[in-house]
């Protein structure tokens, strides 16, 4: 089984209040030097069968029609080694 | 013959009973429509109610847009049937591309429930004929993702064609571009807005009864048609 | 690892078992062995440990809670008494109402958003399980100091969680409380209340009867959520030095719960359900043992048939999982198909996992082997009961001797004015709309009153305008000074709030938030509060229909104030007759009902101005409360008053300011003869309300008060755009509003 | 300027109602063969100065204490070529 990742981000010209809220909070928490933050979505899809061009094309269609709203969002699709998400550093 | 107004129930619809009640108070015959049903049961108009259809997971209205009933609603709307989308219903209409633009997270990131003043700018749609242009009304607003966005060209076009139906007064509650609270399609039969006129139809439970004309407007339009 | 079957357990009596880690005491473990006549299997041990936890078994509190039943006043309104998941109250016209408050304190400290969200989810399922349609929620909340950094983490998360879940579920939030006090710093109190409405014939109870009937689990799939949460989170002191005890947090899915509501009510409507139980703390362990224990027969469950989200779960974990949004129904075989079809209609996963047997055992199987074979009552109902030692705290006398009446008082009009502003802008008294604006109060279209009104009010019948009103109140400061009186004062305030809106108080639910029962002082506070509440309910004629106990609310040795939160439900025949709180009509007369004495112990004034807590709480006079309520209800019914607001923390001046700001009209006040202006403004004497009377009704109203013996003092008139106390000060509404409205957003926005 | 990406996903054992809703919708839209969907968050941080080990350690701390809620979420941190997000395929 393979994992395909779809990243969806608001288009640059669309206001991202969540990213801004994060950015504004960082200095208060003592983190300086972050000039911009944008927050988007990450979808991890477990795909049955081989992730060939045809499969990727299907995922792209899925992203285009469903996972992203292309009126306001951009997306990228990529294959990732499957398996559990790397744990958080302790 | 009474006019039949359908209200769609998606899983997660919440204000469907309120919309049905508003139709009844306005003098129409409320008809319940089910999301899995492609048949609209001879209704004359459709309301897509507020709520969190399919939990509003992914994006508000995104999953509902692909429900069987929406196939028929989209077809009929294009053929001229009056369709009103309230809050989540507005989001569904945008996701369906019956209306341009999209609704995004409120700029302050909180859900907001308040009595909202609005100006009715376009009193010439199927759903607003019982208002007069420029009339100021107060109806409840309640949402977490009510910020209306569209690209500048679309916004200019909406303004130029008078397709902004209602606009926020006394402060923008969510960061909507150009204070837009609701819009219509070019034909004027499809209207979407974030505020809830169906919660302002009785003095007992609403801040005003100034939401009622949305429902009486469409009844008159259909009788005259 | 070999499966610990019943057979295996019988053959290995000496195998060591982790009973202590599961929170059981040695005597409890021995008791289990005695019941079973052998050592328990792992699955049985899991079940007993979680069901015998403080949270599920009420082992420390039971002996005190008994009074609510024993002392219950005769009430024609009770349809189902205390003991079921929630009591049921007759509100007339064939309608019944059920309501209950529950705590989700510890989970909300660990993960504020999800902790609070799942608190709403849990209490709503309790109400559905009674056969009622949930119609409203409320959220009494308590946090640490308003300006403490951790409060900035906890409060916004809790509020967002309550809103996120309740809004998505489509239940109007019609009231609650927000209280700040340093004593709740490591231990916020997140209580949640739900009200449900049904017709008399629709009352459903949790029992599994009828041999051959099927047990259907429906709703979310079972995952590893909150395993051991019930026993470990709620029964042991929350101790930050042991992070390993932090359990997995449950994540709520309000959308799934909305579907559960709809499909459950549809199944009820078609009379498909014999018995039903929600899955809350202790998950399947609780649901199966309680259903079986309440029924007439036994039950057999195939654990392999439970739909899993995480297929690696062990049978013990499946039994203990607290995955949210699940319910268990008992259905006759001929109706199973229809039940499953309704679930399918609502996209709800539903599976037959067992059936009612003619035995008297709860038997659970895994991979064909028996892993549980127990008498269900011993798990669900006959757990250990403790009479824990109690001792009146040794600090109490010193605390009570430190009277607030001795504190320095403002000496002139300017000083009074300044202290009024400080009071109004203090976090506990300030406007809470930054919080309540995050809650939908309109959904369902039946909300007649909601925050900031004295009680929330919901229309029950659109034809007749029958309605119910609910308020929740509690004052931990009063209860700290005197837990017996504190519990009674909580009831009195809630009762008064309901009556202030014109509804007749009928019944009570309570959430008793207390420190460790293993500390004799904490246990004494708890016992006193129970006694106080039960005695007061007897006098007021309002039975306790249900509630919740939350113990171990302390961080290390630092205990919270004992905090009994009391919810009162009232009925109003015609909601169009409701009394709102707003002073709006210029020229109307303001009357103060009740007696004002010099009572400042535990008051908001002593807290805000002197950071002081000491002395005695205001005196309780329940007969007076009852009389005041009668007057308020009659005045509302006969249209004698246009507005009413009860007096509670902050005293008269706080109430007048709130009513003026709500209506946008000012008030000119005169200090009544024989009262000191300071006492007039800030005293917290009980049994009082302020009302706004149209001049045309004055005589009729004062005659009624006179005839019934309730002191009614004319204290001023609705007028202008300031709150003015003649000869002392004038405070423009604009200034009051900006101070009152700024505090909470400044702290949390 | 460099871009650091923080991906935040719910821990595998935590219920992901959003991912489940997406997965349930896919077959209705005619997309078969997706066996699991999980939805998480993606943060794009624009960092001033060099993204050396020290900078990455700071971002990791930020993720640990703020961007992720480690009670229920795991995260990963990685550097990405800066510049605008790759556009959606037309
Ligand atoms: N957390 C909350 N959720 C909903 N409503 C709240 C909350 N906190 C306070 N309120 C509402 O704000 C109003 C004022 O609260 P409070 O001062 O505690 O009232 P009272 O003193 O009359 O009990 C009430 O209507 C109450 O229900
Ligand atoms: Mg009150």
TrEMBL record, chains A, D:
Reactions mediated catalytically: N(2)-formyl-N(1)-(5-phospho-beta-D-ribosyl)glycinamide + L-glutamine + ATP + H2O = 2-formamido-N(1)-(5-O-phospho-beta-D-ribosyl)acetamidine + L-glutamate + ADP + phosphate + H(+)
Keywords for the protein's UniProt record, in alphabetical order: ATP-binding, Cytoplasm, Ligase, Nucleotide-binding, Purine biosynthesis
The protein's annotated pathway: Purine metabolism; IMP biosynthesis via de novo pathway; 5-amino-1-(5-phospho-D-ribosyl)imidazole from N(2)-formyl-N(1)-(5-phospho-D-ribosyl)glycinamide: step 1/2
Pfam family, one: PurS
GO annotations of cellular component type: cytoplasm
EC top class named in words: ligase
Gene3D superfamilies (UniProt xref): Phosphoribosylformylglycinamidine synthase subunit PurS (3.30.1280.10)
A molecular-function term among this protein's GO annotations: phosphoribosylformylglycinamidine synthase activity
GO terms, biological process: 'de novo' IMP biosynthetic process
EC numbers on record: 6.3.5.3
NCBIfam families reported for this sequence: phosphoribosylformylglycinamidine synthase subunit PurS, PRK05974.1
Family note: Belongs to the PurS family.
Assembly information from the UniProt record: Part of the FGAM synthase complex composed of 1 PurL, 1 PurQ and 2 PurS subunits.
Function: Part of the phosphoribosylformylglycinamidine synthase complex involved in the purines biosynthetic pathway. Catalyzes the ATP-dependent conversion of formylglycinamide ribonucleotide (FGAR) and glutamine to yield formylglycinamidine ribonucleotide (FGAM) and glutamate. The FGAM synthase complex is composed of three subunits. PurQ produces an ammonia molecule by converting glutamine to glutamate. PurL transfers the ammonia molecule to FGAR to form FGAM in an ATP-dependent manner.
Name the record gives this protein: Phosphoribosylformylglycinamidine synthase subunit PurS
Species of the source: Streptomyces chumphonensis
Automatic annotation (TrEMBL), chain B:
Span of the signal peptide: none
Pathway note: Purine metabolism; IMP biosynthesis via de novo pathway; 5-amino-1-(5-phospho-D-ribosyl)imidazole from N(2)-formyl-N(1)-(5-phospho-D-ribosyl)glycinamide: step 1/2
Pfam families assigned to the protein according to its UniProt record, in alphabetical order: GATase_5
Positions of the catalytic residues: 87 (nucleophile), 196, 198
Role noted for this protein: Part of the phosphoribosylformylglycinamidine synthase complex involved in the purines biosynthetic pathway. Catalyzes the ATP-dependent conversion of formylglycinamide ribonucleotide (FGAR) and glutamine to yield formylglycinamidine ribonucleotide (FGAM) and glutamate. The FGAM synthase complex is composed of three subunits. PurQ produces an ammonia molecule by converting glutamine to glutamate. PurL transfers the ammonia molecule to FGAR to form FGAM in an ATP-dependent manner.
Quaternary state and interactors: Part of the FGAM synthase complex composed of 1 PurL, 1 PurQ and 2 PurS subunits.
Entry protein name: Phosphoribosylformylglycinamidine synthase subunit PurQ
UniProtKB/TrEMBL annotation, chain C:
Catalysed reaction equations from the record: N(2)-formyl-N(1)-(5-phospho-beta-D-ribosyl)glycinamide + L-glutamine + ATP + H2O = 2-formamido-N(1)-(5-O-phospho-beta-D-ribosyl)acetamidine + L-glutamate + ADP + phosphate + H(+)
Binding residues annotated for Mg(2+) 1, in chain numbering: 102, 548
Gene Ontology terms describing biological process: 'de novo' IMP biosynthetic process
Active site: 55, 104
Cellular component, GO annotation: cytoplasm
Domain PurM-like N-terminal: 83-198, 453-572
Residues engaged in binding ATP: 58, 100, 510, 547
SUPFAM superfamilies per the UniProt record, alphabetical: PurM C-terminal domain-like, PurM N-terminal domain-like
Pfam families: AIRS, AIRS_C, FGAR-AT_linker
Domain PurM-like C-terminal: 211-366, 585-721
Alphabetical list of InterPro entries matching this protein: PRibForGlyAmidine_synth_PurL (IPR010074), PurL_linker (IPR041609), PurM-like_C_dom (IPR010918), PurM-like_C_sf (IPR036676), PurM-like_N (IPR016188), PurM-like_N_sf (IPR036921)
GO molecular function: ATP binding; magnesium ion binding; phosphoribosylformylglycinamidine synthase activity
Keyword Flavoprotein found: no
Residue sites binding Mg(2+) 2 per the record: 126, 278
Pathway named in the protein's UniProt entry: Purine metabolism; IMP biosynthesis via de novo pathway; 5-amino-1-(5-phospho-D-ribosyl)imidazole from N(2)-formyl-N(1)-(5-phospho-D-ribosyl)glycinamide: step 1/2
EC number, UniProt record: 6.3.5.3
Phosphoribosylformylglycinamidine synthase linker domain sequence ranges: 21-59
Principal cellular location given in the protein's record: cytoplasm
Family: Belongs to the FGAMS family.
Subunit comment: Monomer. Part of the FGAM synthase complex composed of 1 PurL, 1 PurQ and 2 PurS subunits.
NCBIfam families, alphabetized: FGAM_synth_II, PRK01213.1
Identification of the protein by name: Phosphoribosylformylglycinamidine synthase subunit PurL
Species annotation: Streptomyces chumphonensis
Organism taxonomic ancestry: Bacteria, Bacillati, Actinomycetota, Actinomycetes, Kitasatosporales
Name of the coding gene: purL
